[in-house]
Each structure stands twice: as structure tokens, then as C-alpha cells.
Write a structure and sequence with these properties.
The complex is a heterotrimer of chains A (300), B (775) and C (161). Chain B is α+β, with helices and mostly antiparallel strands and 775 residues long. Chain B contains 20 helices and 26 strands. A seven-stranded mixed β-sheet of chain B has the order 3-5-1-12-9-10-11, with helices on both faces. Chain C is 33% helix and 16% strand. Chain C has five helices and five strands, in the order E-E-H-E-E-E-H-H-H-H. In chain C, helix 2 (88-96) packs antiparallel against helix 5. Classes of the chains: A alpha+beta (300), B alpha+beta (775), C alpha+beta (161). The structure holds flavin-adenine dinucleotide (FAD) and FE2/S2 (inorganic) cluster (FES) (2 copies). The site of one FE2/S2 (inorganic) cluster (FES) has 13 residues of chain C, from loops.
Chain lengths: 300, 775, 161
């Protein structure tokens, strides 16, 4: 065990192109806020020969709404969690995302850590990921001379493994405008307020005449990656909304997870809690979307 | 004059600011790791990756060849002198010290847990030291290991220490066993039984261990480290670890970032001393938080069964306690903590028949030790639930059951040969019950609550020692001297680790001598200056060291009065001293300042010069028990098993609160640790490998500010004639009642009991399922 | 970049220090510059004892590569008080009994500074949320939250009590 880092080379490129040329995914690693990478380097879980800081690249720290692109939210690779959480655009337009970030309570972590870095860690326990899944976000990845754009669900490949390939960097996360009349809810169970989730759930729903017209359910910490509960979403779109539907959807969601036992919780408990959290989140979001008092389908 | 409480006092009973805190708020305070000496090297320790392995060979040549490395040492380089990590054990009477196992060396020749110390390096800086660690090559022969104390007792189990072939590290019979247990239980109207175990709570002092050692040209060793008992550490270092004599060791205790019992053991001091000896330079040894979690301190895991017999009228007829302690790889505090568990647990309730027995067992788990409460939070978790079960069997309210059966004044204390002098427990119970709203919220046994969120209330009581009298050597000496300007230095030996003892002792001494609080400096932290004392533990400093300080202060006052009388040409009988002025009680315009008296004493050109000073002493074979009642109100979500604590109430029998703010802070902090112990804190060890899985604050979860519920502290003041101004101890106690009160509240809310700590949602849900309730 | 002489602006004063990329800000502050008020509690971002203000924002010095803080304004606990007296936040911590062992205190005080700079009138809930990344093993946070409330009041009054 170590208290100091091993020596490495350090670069501070000024552009994405230069940075992409340097990061090879193995020997050379990108550094955003450093919250995760520096710790892993101290613990010798990562031993890069070169660290490529993205901090000097201009134009990556934005959180802005693109009025021309259908009102989508663009979050740059250097935008910190705190910046996103405090952005008025986010709290008004995508409160689900702000709610998820608020569940990360360590202020210093949010001041240093970037939202993109949080995703790039590739942990299934990310609190940001389920919210972005539920909001249908996309991830922009720059390579040498090209750029691709994938759905956030396709970004997570396994614990600690993401779709970022050697000589690639995430430049932006794009969150589309929220479906009309939709409401979301993020719920998290953890040992203490400042802990990583045992299970977390994000849902986004909208209703039309008592039935779900839009439903997205995402679950974290209950499988090797964050997952979308597609079968549960389909069930919601099919059935009339009532408490039993929420319960049935929650049971369906529980069939889409593969939890494990670890230091934070047990597989059994997690599986059970997926049911409780999905049902509670759906019920509370439905309330927010106005289905209970017949105001569904209308702009809030 | 006014009718505010204790207005007869100038300092005592007031929430005066402590002398050490401003420097802590500005960053000026120096903790051990903050100190740098000229020529100092940095030391780091290589730990074993195997839980049980023979060290076949260690090749240090590559590490030694690295530029900047001054020394690499292994077991071959250290004295072949066994010692125990428990420095506190030095205070045991000889017959008891003999039962301590001297099973440890500075570096081990065999790894007995993951994290055991195998080699150490001293180098010019941290970076070189750690690179050198990476270059040490150790050849291990991995041996079968055992991680469960019950498995360790089975025939054929791996042997952790050659000298203890059956892994039985020790057996203790409770010294106050009496009566025929089987007969008493057989003839009882009811027998309540509860079994369970506590978690290995980490002390988790925020300051990681660190130690600096330096030898002078005459072979005298100076150590800087956060020790809770420097004088005993000095002895252990001079007499056990090395054979150099106590006089050749000087121990300096800088600011201490929390202790909670961890620092009653050696940390890295022996390694620092060895490295400094080999290199001839000062060495500072540093550790990481992960190493600390994998290492050498935590609450001892104890598996216990308690049976309580009760008669028709709800009177306790017998109590039996059976304790199985997992010592871990080395004996450390496991014996003394098992003994103290039984004394405090079996010492709170009146019972004609008592039977207690403890067995300590070696395993390949990390070495345990003692933590705040020292056995009491372990035993209380079991006893207080057994008491509720007994109360339910008799159909009695838990409050009434405890009021009826708790020991009171004149009855034997937890250290039975001594009687209880004062006991405000009934008052604590009554006021605590009011504060939690017991009469409104407790609806009787089997209240059958419904719904997803169910509320419940629970309670617990305890007694704890104020000082170690009866168990350990218990004496303390204070020296107080007056400077020319009438200010005073009070030289005493507590460890200021946050509890505010420097201020409290200054308040006591100022009051006793008639000085102003701000004119008394508490001097501590250097064994070359202070006189012998067993250190800061056993909730003893205010009581025991306070008594010594008060004795010294009163003697100083007597000298001042006597010399002032001569200066004023009056009789000394009619004089008093207050706030730095000597005055005639009959006519306060007649007087002289203490400064003038002190100055005149030193600058006396005839034959009567005197630097006014006095030595005060406390020695006792008793420990002035204090008492406490704790209450909790909780709400449990039966679908998730999550317990939300709505309120905690701690009502403590303090005797006299010398500094109420400090006492409150102490109990609030204790309550937070108790809440963590109850609900979240758990040193999780992998059952297959013996690896600590929760080896960081990210996985070992203590409470954050957001997790704290309302805590109401009630101080019940009934001055004890043996304490300084009536004060009793409090330091360890805030932690003890929380877990049992919550456990009992859970039963009230949802009708289930969880048998192991922490009480996690996972366990609650499982218990609810087994009970056929909940989701 | 390998070894270089870099400038750190700590508490308004420039320091030239030899740094290498693998050095952490906490070690540069403590060992190279000699400002040991910043505490090392975990080295993992879990305790907040190492909190310093980087351009006014609270960060973990234990997870910051020193090279990334070159030429940027840093505030450590030593830089809070103006002159010999205590800063109102420090005074509030002392008065409220919010300091026990004091090991968490530098980080707590600086995090409080960041909070009150951003939100001069925080609620109890906002205080607890802002401080939730700073662990204290001694106090149970009760008196820390009280201290922050009282410091906020004093600072709103222009520093007077
Ligand atoms: C005390 C604490 C509490 C926490 N609590 C939570 C919590 O409750 N919930 C939660 O979800 N998270 C939590 N986290 C995790 C935290 O949110 C992330 O570690 C942080 O956001 C990572 O961002 P960063 O900018 O610091 O990433 P870095 O550490 O800089 O990078 C992380 C990884 O991503 C790579 N990377 C970074 N940027 C890019 C990019 N643009 N393109 C490609 N790869 C890149 C790096 O190479 C590295 O491998 C916590 C962390 C701490 C220390
Ligand atoms: S030392 Fe940096 S967060 Fe603990
Ligand atoms: S005062 Fe000791 S850790 Fe906070």
C-alpha cells in the first residue's frame, strides 16, 4: 500500500486533437478532475506512464442549452458536477439530473469531479448514469480525425469498461429536451448520505389519458453496468396506469438486473430494493406528471 | 449575588474556551506528522499480503541499493524481546500482567494477518521509501489460516502462535461470580436470553498514526507520537521493546487527532525507534489510512450470550454472561477488554446470582484492541436487549423494570468491593424518558404497529468507571507553580486528544487556587517534565487528574494565603483568594494580588525566598462509577429495512459539569460514534482470505453531518464527594447506550431483533421476513 | 514535463518550488512550502481534512496533482485570518465548541468559507449538505453546524457579533 504516486510523464495539450493523439487508453491516461484517476494511481490500480491533463483545453467546460438543436442540453467534458448541479438550465429543464447529482453529497468531489469523468470511470454505481439513461442522453466521442456519437446505454460495457477506445476522448454529453409533460424521479439507497449507492433508480414518465406515453427506467449498482429496464418500460406503455401497473413494472425491472453481494450490500437485498425503488420512483414521478389528478399530458 | 447555578465558582461550571482550540482553528497546532527534525528520514512499513505465512527469506539488497535509502530492516534486525501492543497493560497489577501474552515483536518472523509488519525502510523522502518497499523481495510459505474464533477452537485448526497450540489466548472468570446459577435460573419465574455479537468498530481517529524517534549520543531515545498514555508507553519502550530502562526514554505527545482507545496501544513507535537506532538519524514513520484499516486496532469482536432470571415481582434473580472474544493475530487488549466488559455489563443491575466467563481466541484476523467504552458497548448491546425481553416476560414497562432493578447508592459498584457513592441514574432515567416522550410514545408490549413506516422508542442504561481504581494502578500527580506575575503552570499528564482536558484541569486548578482561568497554563505532553500517570482512558482524566490538580491548587492557595497574611500583617484564617487576589473575608478592601505575593516570594533578598509551588496527588482503589440513561426514537421502513433515527436522548450522571460545553460535545460525539456503531460502521473481513474489505472511509462508513439526528444531552448534576468539585467521568460513555436503545426501539416499532451489529437494512429486512411481517 | 521549478500562489504569496508530476498538492503544501495546517486524513477524497480553496472553491489537496495548481490562487487554513486575530469563522468554531481534536478543523473551516462565500444565509440543511464531505470523528457535527450558523450571522453583520 502506498501514500505517494509512482513517477509519470505529464502533458497538458491545448486541443482535443493533440490530446487524442496522446491518450492511448493504456499507458497514457486522460485526467479531468482527477478525483478517480489520482486515487487509483495512489492505490496502484492504475499505473500510467503518461497523464494527459485535459484541463488546459479551451471550450470543454460548457453547460448550455442549444436553442437551434431542439433545445438539447450540452455538457462539456470539463464541466464539473457542481457546475451542472447549479446550472439554472439544468434545475429547470432537467431536474432529474440535478436531483441525481445532489445525491452525491461530497462538495469537493462535485467541485473537482466532472460529469463526463464520472461516466468514464465506468462504474455501475454512478448516480449520474441512471439519470442520463432515463433522459435519453448521448455521448460524443472524438477520435483521431473523427467523431462518433452513441447512446449513453451503449457507453457502459462492463465494470470499469466503457466504449472509449484508445486514442479517443469524450467531448460532450448531450441530453435531449425533455418530452412534453414528462416528470422524473431519482431514488438512491446507501449506507450513509455520503456513500455510493447500494441501488439507485431513475425514471422519466409522461402520460396521455391515463396511460404512459413515455417511460424510461434505469437502474444502477444492480448489474455489471447501469441498465435500462426495457421490459418494464414496455409494460408501462401497454397497461393503464394504476398502482398495480407500477408494481408489475417494478417486478419486471427486477428481472433485468443481476446484482452481486459486496461490501455495500447483498445481491438479495439489491434485487428486492430494485422492486421497491422502481415502484416508488414511478409512483412519485407519475404524481409529478399529474396522472393522478387528471392533468397528465399537459405542459407543466 | 445572582441565582445562576454554581455562582460560588469563578471558573468551574462555566463553558470557558479551551486553551488549545484557537491554534487548532488556525492550523498552528502541531500534530506528530507535522513535525520535521533536522536530518530526519521518512520510514514506511512493508506489510504481509498473506493472512498466515512463514517468511522463508527476505532479500533487501535491491532496496538497500536504491539511492537515498538509509536502512532496510526485517525481523532478523530487531530485538528478540516479546511485548504486547497494549501499552495500557503496564498499569495492571503483576498477577494480571502475567496473563497478558507477550506475543509480538517489532517486526514479525511469521505473518499472522494480512497487514502484519514484515520489513521497514528509512529513506530521504516518502517517494524513495516507497520505491524501496517495492524492491523488497519476500519469499512466503503460505500456511492454512483461520478467521473464525469458533473454527479456531476446533481440533486440527491452524495454530496462530506456537506457544498457544489450541489458539486459546486466555480464559477469564468474572471475579465477582456468586451463587448457584442453575438453581437460580430453575427457580426463576422467567428466563430471558439474548445472544449476539458486536462489530469491529474502528476508532478511526482522523489523524492517521505517525511517530518520530530520535536517539541522542548517549543512547537516550526520544519519541514523538499520539500516545494516550505516554508514561506507560515510555516504560513499555524502555523495558519491554528495548532493554534500556525507563530513564532512557523521553516521550513527547504533540497535538493528538483523536484517540478513542487506539492510542492505548503501540502504533508505529517501535518501528520508528528501531529505524532511528539503525540509521542514527531521526525517523518519522507514516502510514496510510488503508494500512490502518488493515492493521492493528479495532473494537474486539465479542460473541456473547446473556441470560437473565426474573422473579414474580419482576426482580432479577440471576444474570449469566458468556463471552467469546476474537483476539485476532495478537493478544493486545483482548483480555482486559473482556474483563471490563463483564465488570460493566454485570455491574449495572442488582442480582443475587452472577456468573460471567470469557474466552479469548487467536485467529488470523487483524489485531483487535480497545475502543471507547472498552467492553461496555459490546456487553450493553446484549444485556439491554435481554433486560427488555425480561421486562416483556413480566409485562413490565422497560423504564420501571430498570428503575426497579438497577443498583443504587450504597450497593456494590461494578467493581464490587467498592460501594456506589452517588448515583443519579433514576433521575437520568426519569428526565430522559420525559425528553423522548416515553409515556406518550411507548404503548406497551406487542403494540402491533401497522403500515410501511413504523415508529418505536427504546432505552438503555449503563454504568461506567470514572478512573481505573480497582482495575489498574490508579494514581496521578500534579505540580503547580506560580510565576512572578501571578500566573501558574500546572504540570499534569493527560493526553489532550480533543476532549478538552487542558481547559478542564485549568478550570479546576484556577478555582482551587483562587486564580483566574486564563492565568493557569496546563503543561503536558513531555514525560521529562510531567510526573507519572497512567494516561487518558477509563474516563478518568477529569476525575483522577482533576483531583491531583485540585490538591496541588489548594496547597498553592494555602501557601499564598500564609505569605500574604505576613505581607498584610493579618491572620491567615480570615483570608481567601479569588480571581488572583488575596483578600480579607471580613473586609475585602484589605488584600494583595497573588502576583505580588508570588513575585515577593521569588525576589526575596533575605532568607525566606520561595518559588511558590506544590505537588498534588490522587490515588484511589475505587473508580467513582457514573451512570447514564439513553433513549432513541426511530422510524423503520418495513419495505426497505431502513431505520431513520428521529431523536437520541443521553442523560448523564456527571456529578458536576466542570465545563458544560465540553461535556455536551463529548456526549454528542460519543452519540455519533454510537449511532455509527449501531447502524453503519463495520470492519468487514473476507471470510475466505482474511482481507479487510472495508479498508477506507469509502467503504467503512461513519456518519456524515447529513446523517446526524437531533441529539438531546441532559446533564444531571449530583456532586460526588470524591470528585473534584463533585465531578465524575464522562469521556467514553456517550457511545454505550445508543445501539441498545435503537435495538430496543426497533423491537417496539416492528417486533424484531437483530443479533449482530451494525443493524443494517439488510438484516432488518431478513428479520422482518423471518417474523412474517413487512413487505 | 519532468522536474521543474513552479510557482504556487498560496494565501496571496508566491512560492517557487521544485515539483515533479507525481507530487500531490498536499505534499507540496506541507513538505515543500511548510504549511502543515492542511491535514492528511485519508488520501482518498473521503474525509475532507486536506481541503484547500483553489480559486475560492473547495478541493481535495490529496487528489490534486500539484502541477495542475501551478500559478493558481490557493487558500490554506494559514491564510484565513487577517493578521493576528481569528477569522470570524474560526472564532465561531472556537466559541461554539466545534473544535475537539482539531484534526478536521482546517478542512471544516475552509469548506465553511466556501459555503458562506457562495451562500451567506444557509439553512441548517444546506450547511449539513455542504459539509457532508468533511468527516469529523469527535463532535457528532452538532456544534459544527451551530458554529457555521453563528459564523454566517456574524459575517452578514460585517464581522461584528
Ligand atoms: C468522496 C467521493 C464520493 C463520491 N460519491 C459519488 C457518488 O455518490 N455517486 C457517484 O456517482 N460518484 C461518486 N463519486 C465519484 C466521482 O463522481 C467521480 O470519481 C468523478 O466525477 C470523476 O470525475 P473526474 O473528472 O475527477 O475524473 P478523473 O479522475 O479525471 O477521470 C476518471 C477516469 O475517466 C477518464 N476520463 C476522464 N475524462 C475523460 C474524457 N473526457 N474522455 C475519456 N476519458 C476520460 C480518466 O482517464 C479516468 O480513467 C465520488 C467520489 C469521491 C471521491
Ligand atoms: S485527506 Fe484528502 S480527503 Fe481525506
Ligand atoms: S474535531 Fe476531531 S475529527 Fe473533528
Amino acid at each position: 500500500m502506498h501514500r505517494a504516486l509512482l513517477p509519470f510523464e505529464f502533458s497538458e495539450p491545448a486541443s482535443v486533437e493533440e490530446a487524442v493523439a496522446l491518450v492511448d487508453g493504456g499507458r497514457a491516461r486522460a485526467l479531468a478532475g482527477g478525483v478517480d484517476l489520482v486515487l487509483k494511481m495512489r492505490l496502484r490500480q492504475e499505473t500510467p506512464e503518461r497523464v494527459v491533463s485535459l484541463q488546459k483545453i479551451a471550450g470543454l467546460d460548457h453547460v448550455r442549452v442549444d436553442a437551434h438543436g431542439g433545445g438539447a442540453l450540452h455538457i462539456g467534458a470539463l464541466a464539473t458536477l457542481r457546475q451542472v448541479e447549479q446550472s439554472a438550465a439544468v434545475t429547470q429543464g432537467w431536474p432529474l439530473l440535478a436531483e441525481a447529482i445532489a445525491s452525491i453529497v461530497s462538495m469537493q468531489t462535485k467541485v473537482m469531479g466532472t460529469l463526463v469523468g464520472n461516466l468514464c470511470v465506468g462504474t455501475p454505481a454512478s448516480d449520474v448514469a441512471p439519470a442520463l439513461f432515463a433522459l435519453g442522453a448521448r455521448v460524443k466521442i472524438a477520435g483521431v480525425g473523427d467523431e462518433r456519437d452513441i447512446a449513453v446505454e451503449d457507453f457502459f460495457l462492463g465494470p470499469g469498461v466503457t466504449a472509449v477506445r484508445p486514442h479517443e476522448l469524450v467531448t460532450e454529453v448531450v441530453v435531449p429536451a425533455r418530452p412534453v409533460g414528462s416528470a422524473g424521479r431519482f431514488l438512491k439507497l446507501s449506507k450513509t448520505a455520503d456513500d455510493i449507492a447500494k441501488v439507485n433508480v431513475a425514471v422519466s414518465v409522461a402520460f396521455s389519458r391515463g396511460t404512459c406515453a413515455h417511460a424510461r427506467i434505469a437502474i444502477g449498482s444492480a448489474a455489471p453496468t447501469p441498465v435500462r429496464a426495457v421490459a418494464a418500460e414496455e409494460l408501462l406503455l401497454r397497461e393503464d396506469w394504476c398502482p398495480a401497473t407500477a408494481k408489475a413494472a417494478a417486478e419486471a425491472a427486477a428481472r433485468s438486473v443481476r446484482p452481486i453481494s459486496d461490501v455495500r450490500s447483498t445481491a438479495d437485498y439489491r434485487a428486492e430494493m430494485v422492486k421497491v425503488l422502481v415502484r416508488d420512483a414511478l409512483t412519485q414521478a407519475a404524481d409529478g406528471a399529474g396522472v393522478l389528478d387528471g392533468h397528465d399530458g399537459k405542459e407543466a | 449575588m445572582t441565582n445562576e447555578p454554581h455562582s460560588e465558582f469563578s471558573s468551574v461550571g462555566k463553558s470557558l474556551a479551551r486553551p488549545d482550540v484557537a491554534a487548532k482553528a488556525t492550523g498552528a497546532a502541531r500534530f506528530s506528522a507535522d513535525i520535521a527534525l533536522p536530518g530526519m528520514l521518512i520510514g514506511r512499513i512493508l506489510t504481509s499480503p498473506h493472512a498466515h505465512a512463514r517468511i522463508v527469506a527476505i532479500d533487501t539488497s535491491r532496496a538497500k541499493a536504491l539511492p537515498g535509502v538509509a536502512a532496510v530492516i526485517t525481523h532478523a534486525d530487531v530485538p528478540k524481546r516479546g511485548f504486547t501492543r497494549s501499552v495500557m497493560a503496564e498499569g495492571l497489577p503483576p498477577f494480571a500482567y502475567e496473563t497478558e501474552n507477550l506475543d509480538q515483536y517489532i517486526l514479525s518472523d511469521k505473518a499472522r494477518y494480512i497487514g502484519d509488519w514484515v520489513a521497514a525502510v528509512a529513506a530521504v523522502d516518502l517517494y524513495v521509501a516507497e520505491r524501496a518497499l517495492d524492491l523488497i523481495e519476500v519469499e512466503y510459505e503460505v500456511l492454512p489460516a483461520v478467521f473464525d474464533p469458533e473454527d479456531a477452537l476446533a481440533p486440527g485448526a491452524p495454530v496462530v502462535h506456537k506457544g498457544w497450540k489450541d489458539n486459546v489466548a486466555g480464559v477469564i472468570e468474572h471475579p465477582f461470580n456468586r451463587g448457584d446459577l442453575d438453581a437460580a435460573l430453575a427457580s426463576s419465574a422467567h428466563v430471558a436470553e439474548f445472544s449476539g455479537r458486536n462489530s469491529r468498530q474502528k476508532q478511526a481517529h482522523m489523524e492517521p498514526d505517525a511517530a518520530i524517534a530520535s536517539w541522542d549520543d548517549k543512547g537516550r531515545l526520544t519519541v514523538w507520537s499520539p500516545s494516550q498514555n505516554a508514561h506507560l508507553a515510555k516504560k513499555a519502550m524502555g523495558r519491554r521493546v528495548f532493554d534500556i530502562g525507563e530513564g532512557n526514554v523521553r516521550w513527547i505527545t504533540p497535538a493528538v487527532g483523536g484517540g478513542f482507545g487506539a492510542r492505548l496501544s503501540f502504533g508505529v513507535e517501535p518501528v520508528a525507534a528501531m529505524l532511528a537506532k539503525v540509521t542514527g538519524r531521526p525517523v518519522k514513520v507514516l502510514v496510510t489510512r488503508e494500512e490502518d484499516f488493515n492493521g492493528w486496532n479495532s473494537r474486539t469482536e465479542q460473541r456473547q450470550t446473556i441470560r437473565v432470571g426474573v422473579g414474580e415481582a419482576g426482580e432479577i434473580t440471576a444474570i449469566e454472561q458468556d463471552v467469546l472474544s476474537d483476539s485476532g493475530a495478537y493478544f493486545s487488549h483482548s483480555g482486559t477488554i473482556s474483563a471490563v466488559n463483564m465488570q460493566s455489563t454485570l455491574g449495572v443491575m442488582r442480582s443475587p446470582v452472577v456468573r460471567g466467563k470469557a474466552l479469548m481466541v487467536y485467529t488470523n484476523n487483524p489485531t483487535a484492541s480497545g475502543m471507547r467504552g472498552y467492553g461496555n458497548p459490546e456487553g450493553s448491546f446484549i444485556l439491554q436487549q435481554a433486560l427488555d425481553i425480561a421486562a416483556e416476560k413480566c409485562g413490565m414497562d422497560p423504564v420501571d423494570f430498570r428503575l426497579k432493578n438497577a443498583r443504587g447508592p450504597g450497593e456494590p459498584s461494578m467493581w464490587e468491593p467498592q460501594a456506589i457513592t452517588t448515583c443519579a441514574l433514576p433521575e437520568c432515567i426519569r428526565r430522559g424518558a420525559v425528553a423522548i416522550g416515553w409515556d406518550q410514545k411507548w404503548h406497551g408490549w406487542g403494540a402491533g404497529k401497522e403500515g410501511r413506516y413504523r415508529r418505536g422508542v427504546g432505552m438503555s442504561i449503563m454504568t461506567h468507571a470514572s478512573g481505573a481504581g480497582g482495575f489498574l494502578l490508579e494514581h496521578s500527580t500534579a505540580v503547580m507553580k506560580l510565576d512572578e506575575d501571578g500566573t501558574a503552570s500546572l504540570s499534569v499528564s493527560p493526553c489532550e486528544m480533543g476532549q478538552g482536558i487542558l481547559g478542564v484541569l485549568a478550570q479546576i486548578a484556577a478555582e482551587g487556587a483562587g486564580l483566574r482561568y486564563e492565568d493557569v497554563r496546563t503543561v503536558t505532553g513531555d514525560t521529562d517534565v510531567t510526573l507519572f500517570d497512567i494516561g487518558t482512558h477509563a474516563s478518568r482524566s477529569t476525575y483522577a487528574i482533576g483531583n491531583a490538580a485540585l490538591d496541588a491548587a489548594r496547597k498553592v492557595k494555602a501557601i499564598v494565603v500564609e505569605r500574604a497574611a505576613r505581607m498584610l500583617g493579618v491572620e491567615s484564617e480570615g483570608l481567601d483568594v479569588r480571581d488572583g487576589r488575596v483578600f480579607a473575608v471580613a473586609d475585602s478592601s484589605v488584600g494583595v494580588s497573588v502576583a505580588e505575593v508570588a513575585h515577593a516570594g521569588i525576589y526575596e533578598y533575605g532568607t525566606d525566598a520561595r518559588h511558590i509551588m506544590a505537588t498534588g496527588k490522587h490515588q484511589s482503589v475505587m473508580h467513582c462509577p457514573n451512570f447514564q440513561a439513553g433513549f432513541a426514537e426511530i422510524e423503520v421502513d418495513v419495505e426497505t429495512g431502513v431505520i431513520k433515527v428521529l431523536k437520541l436522548v443521553i442523560a448523564h450522571d456527571i456529578g458536576r459539569a466542570i465545563n458544560p460545553l465540553t461535556v455536551e460535545g463529548c456526549l454528542e460525539g460519543g452519540a455519533a460514534q454510537g449511532l455509527g456503531y449501531a447502524l453503519t460502521e463495520d470492519l468487514v473481513i473476507d471470510k475466505g482470505t482474511g482481507k479487510v474489505v472495508s479498508d477506507s472511509f469509502a467503504t467503512y462508513k461513519m456518519l456524515s453531518a447529513l446523517d446526524m439526528p437531533e441529539v438531546e444531552v441532559i446533564l444531571v448534576e449530583e456532586p460526588d464527594p470524591t470528585g473534584p468539585f463533585g465531578a465524575k467521568g464522562v469521556g467514553e460513555t456517550g457511545i454505550t447506550n445508543v445501539a441498545p436503545a435503537i435495538a430496543n426501539a426497533l423491537y417496539d416499532a416492528a417486533g424484531v431483533r437483530v443479533h449482530s451489529l451494525p443493524i443494517t437494512p439488510e438484516k432488518v429486512l431478513e428479520a422482518l421476513r423471518a417474523h412474517g411481517a413487512g413487505a | 514535463m519532468a522536474k521543474e521549478i513552479a510557482t504556487f500562489i498560496v494565501n496571496g504569496q508566491g512560492y517557487e518550488v521544485i515539483v515533479e508530476p507525481h507530487m500531490l498538492l498536499i505534499d507540496v503544501l506541507r513538505d515543500s512550502i511548510g504549511l502543515v495546517g492542511t491535514k492528511y486524513g485519508c488520501g482518498a477524497g473521503d474525509c475532507g481534512a486536506c481541503t484547500v480553496l483553489l480559486e475560492g472553491k473547495p478541493v481535495f489537496a490529496c487528489l490534486t496533482l500539484a502541477v495542475t495548481a501551478r500559478d493558481r490562487s490557493l487558500t490554506t487554513i494559514e491564510g484565513l485570518a487577517d493578521g493576528a486575530g481569528l477569522h470570524p469563522i474560526q472564532q465561531a468554531f472556537v466559541d461554539a465548541g466545534a473544535v475537539q481534536c482539531g484534526f478536521c478543523t482546517p478542512g471544516m473551516v475552509l469548506t465553511t468559507k466556501a459555503l458562506l462565500d457562495e451562500n451567506p444565509e444557509p439553512t441548517r440543511g444546506e450547511i449539513k449538505a455542504f459539509l457532508a464531505g468533511n468527516l469529523c470523528r469527535c463532535t457528532g457535527y452538532v456544534k459544527i453546524v451551530e458554529a457555521v450558523e453563528s459564523a454566517a450571522g456574524i459575517l452578514r453583520n460585517g464581522g461584528a457579533r
